[in-house]
Input
Amino acid sequence: QIHLVQSGGGSVQVGQSLKLSCKATATTTISMAWFRHTPEKGREGVAAISVLGATRYADSVKGRFTISKDNANNTLYLQLNDVRPEDTGMYYCTASIYSGLPPFNPDWGSWYWGQGTQVTVSS
Output
């Protein structure tokens, strides 16, 4: 069983930065990821990290977003830099007992989901 509690999010202007956090409670090592939901694209993968720290990013956020994990505190982060209006959406933290780099598939049956946090980027 994995429990996720998200924090961060809010409203920022184009070009600014924001950091999201996700505290995980788990009895084993976990891989994690960030998804976001928008009316236009539905739920899409943003960034993922394996147990050993391998990472994957959506093309739309490469070079601007950074996923990281504090293993001592089992906390996942997403640093959003140079944000754009299209980054607006509900951001979800996910976790799995799968140790490898998890897929950007929101329907993957191994995911546990956080409660979501809204990010709004205005110009």
The CA atoms of residues 75 and 106 lie 20 Å apart.
